[in-house]
From TrEMBL:
Pfam families: Glyco_hydro_77
Stated name of the protein: 4-alpha-glucanotransferase
Alphabetized Gene3D superfamilies for the sequence: Glycosidases (3.20.20.80)
Protein's UniProt keywords contain S-adenosyl-L-methionine: no
Amino acid sequence: MNHDEAVLSLARRAGFSVDWIDQTGRSQTVTPDRLRRLLEAMGLPCETGAEAADSIHRLEAIDAARPALVTARVGEPFALKAAVGASARFVREDGATFDVTLGEGSDGLALMRPVMEPGYHRLLVGDEETILAVAPQSGLSIVAAGGGRRMWGLAAQVYGLTRSGDGGIGDLGGVAALAEVAARAGADALALSPLHAGFTADPHHFGPYSPSSRLFLNPLNGDPDFLFGEERVAAASDVAGVSGVRARHERAALIDWPDAARAKLATLRALYDSFRDFELAEASPGRLAADFAAFRAEGGALLEEHARFETLHGARFAADAGQWSWRRWPEALRNPASGDVAAFAAEHADTVTFHVFLQWIADRSFAAAQKVARQAGMAIGLISDLAVGMDAGGSHAWGRQDDVLVGLSVGAPPDLFNADGQAWGLATFSPIALKKSGFAPFLATLRACMKNAGGVRIDHAMGLTRLWMVPENEGAENGAYLAYPADDMLRLVALESHRNRAVVVGEDLGTVPDGFRERLAATGIAGMRVLQFERDAARFYPPDYYPDDALAMTTTHDLPTTAGWWRGADIDLRAGIAGDQFGETAANDRATRAEDRSKLWAAFVAARVAEGAPPPQEEPDAAVDAAVSFLALTPSKLALVPLEDALGQTEQPNLPGTLDEHPNWRRRLPAPAPELLAVQAAKDRLASLNRRRDP
């Protein structure tokens, strides 16, 4: 074959879709030149024919090797790379051992008999061991979590919650207070914005969907009151000299991330110094010291790597802003296993321990908030949010470089909504690394998100089967779809959902592959249906159109609130921003919105949640009331109302396509959520959701 043919062959073997269908139904073909850049970033060079041949041989060797982990479903036989008729020893997760003989499968593979117990078992064939991840037919579904009844919940931006003592950045103390009052009102779930770890040394980088690591938490969302009590935390704030600064930020309408973060971290540092000098210095560890030691031991190498990264990042970034990314550090520091990194960590051991301390507070805060939610009566409790990727300059990409496709960005191809496509600047897992490592990074990420929650929402869930990957610093049109081992990943999601008793929601909005929603449903993963999208050209769909196994919502963090949509505030906002990233003119958008308001109100009237003529554009309260009542009528087993809609707010949390033009991820509630939900309009909206409990 010629060179281009070799590149195409390598690309297909690596999982790239050379030929694909765009949203308009037209066939597209990725050029060899574009594929070469993508493959190079995957560590599969192919600039010459010899390089392409060598990369193909490497992939063939990986495919031929016995995998470290094989997935299967309970009660179903499955194929293995082993000799047909070989004697093997099956070691069940509980330690029970059985001798088995492998049967004959297809394509020369051996066949293992069905395993009836879900779990991580072992199969020994000679001196080789394979982990058998046997999943139940379905994870914990929303239907099962609620005992078959219809439930409702709220969705909240954690950073925007307010409480006395939060220092100007919403935290898990605010989550606990909101969960308790929502549960008393009848809620069974509280979905949260991502709590992933950011960059402690750079609070300017605060977008919750661009984390440094999804394995750890943002310490700015931790609430030390849970562990140390309000008085000791207040004393630490006084010692740090930031009490006045914290109080000022608590009164602000928008979060000043850099200044509020500095004050909050100063308080946490003073609290750590006190903890180190007293609890950790005691000859016989007390309750807190013992719990801290247990947390550190449980976190193991991954936690230590993250704490070392945070310490290194703080030092390098402070010395040279150009070294924000670890990829610009001195070469010896780019390798987390190097002697230079070990020496630095030893020299700065106290700071490393401080970052472990921050993770301890955040973790225990999360667990405490979930405990409050469940004890208050929620069937599910907190639902965490798993971002689709991570920053290539962050902790995970540094600590586990073989896991991550550094040099490629996740995005979306050009479509009807965005003619240029999207490149989100996020790195993600290598499908080759997932297979070679027995899916270790994927499992660690799932477990981190499920550890302290009753559920998890997987952002851009299509990434379980394919992702649009774009070479770094290039336009989205230069990308291609990269396949992921969907069968394996869905089985692992089901198994971890079962083991952690956590429901799973897959964000399946946008361009969805054929049959994907059905695959999610078969695994027990609920898809999403958003009121603003559930329509055709002529009408908005009635409540009974919504599937019962989906999550129904009025809106999302990336869309206008219901009040904002009714007012056209999003159109006005886009019109005031220079540039052509938003497509249509404001005049066209306003004309279309006027028609859509009439169509939505007609759907409300038909569903008997509204009557008469639509309210004026500038008076959206009746439309918000009707939207919440409309959601209550859907057969979906869980309906989620964003807190902004429960409160009738106009401003949306995030406006995609903007950076500084809109205060994305910065809005704070004007008062604690429990107080705001006590206002009659909010109480009425929550009360209307309780009709879902009726048979």
